[in-house]
What does this fold into?
Amino acid sequence: MKVLVAVKRVVDYNVKVRVKPDNSGVDLANVKMAMNPFCEIAVEEAVRLKEKGVVNEIVVVSIGPKACQEQIRTALALGADRGIHIETDAEIQSLQVAKLLKAVADKEQPNLIILGKQAIDSDNNQTGQMLAALAGMSQGTFASEVVIDGDKVNVTREVDGGMMTVSLTLPVVVTTDLRLNEPRYASLPNIMKAKKKPLESISPADLGVDVAPRLTIVKVEAPASRQAGIKVADVAELVNKLKNEAKVI
It folds into this structure.
């Protein structure tokens, strides 16, 4: 079985981002970048399936500038077998990402495609669903457990009041939730070995996909500052403030 895993280069989740003075976006100058945390979970799940003997090959794909190869090499160090870099400096939006991944899937013919359910920069939560629709595949989203049984995949997700499991027939698109697993760290020997693993670089034009943006960002603003909390002397004062200031009771 072949697994295709998509990974995205994003601002490291430990970094406090700043909005550009002209409100056109987030300032990425000299900011530490990393693999999207949900994509790390996707890579980890693929590696675990390979360790169980279910998967034979893991192909990692990333889209963006040349620097994205850093995240592909990280995935290779974690256990992926080879990488595909779709190199472009253009702004790539969710639909274009889905189309590019669909083109790669047509070429690679994977049995399973695993993506993070969302990226922490755009927070759109739509690429996996778009990819499944474009590719005509079944989808299991927000996966907290993935069990492969023959040509079936049982995907479990949390829902209001419990858990829901769907049984899907391969090929399938799965998007990962935080509860699916805990990603491992790459060892130094594996980081060195990853440098020699194959990494193919192609362009969107090679895949015949138009990546012109369809959406225009009007304005980016930082969240409003939260007011500091206060201490109250007793319950009576608390009730008074909730009733007359917060007006929640």
